[in-house]
Amino acid sequence: GGPPPRANPLPAPPPPPLPVGGGRWRPPQAATTAAFNRYEAVDLSRLTPSVSGTISTKWGDSATVVVDGSVAGWLLVSTGAVLTFRAIADAPTAPFKSGTTVGTVIGLLNTKTVVTWNVVSTGAVAAPSPLWKLFSG
Fold it and tell me: Which pTM was predicted?
């Protein structure tokens, strides 16, 4: 039945090594880099808004207000996205002590709240005196 198979005098060459950091990996690497370049990481602890003001009563007692510390964490946003802030005042009932939450500041990305800070009083606010209640309340 036919001629015998011929032996190959040379061994087959080994397969080429897979390129690392180049070659076939360039297109996926470029796509990944382009995708990540469309986003920015925002360190929320460095984003604490500045708030100044006072909370006061009809009977003349008042206290200043401040943002209560920073928020820890990171937020990933599209490059060029606009983060807006909105202050919301609460109506705490006197008397209240120093450190009472009197409002919030929210950070909005489009219409979604992505971060919130408490606004607190730096001093106590007393209740109205009985005399004030008698003549003014």
Answer: 0.68
In the 3-class helix/strand/coil scheme, how is 40-93 assigned residue by residue?
EEEEHHHCCCCCCCEEECCCCCEEEEEECCCCCCEEEEECCCCEEEEEEECCCC
Classify the C-alpha dihedral 50-116-68-105 as positive or negative. Answer: positive
| Cα distances (Å, whole numbers) of residue 59 to 30, 40, 91 | 66, 48, 15
Between CA 59 and CA 48, with CA 124 as vertex, the angle to 5 degrees is 115
Question: What CA–CA distances, in Å, run from 123 to 4, 96, 126?
Answer: 102, 9, 10
User: 68-124: per-residue pLDDT in tens?
Assistant: 887 888 888 888 888 899 999 998 899 999 999 999 999 998 889 989 999 999 999
Q: How far apart are CA 9 and CA 110, in angstroms?
A: 71
Cβ-based burial of 132 (10 A; exposed 0-12, middle 13-18, buried ≥19):
middle
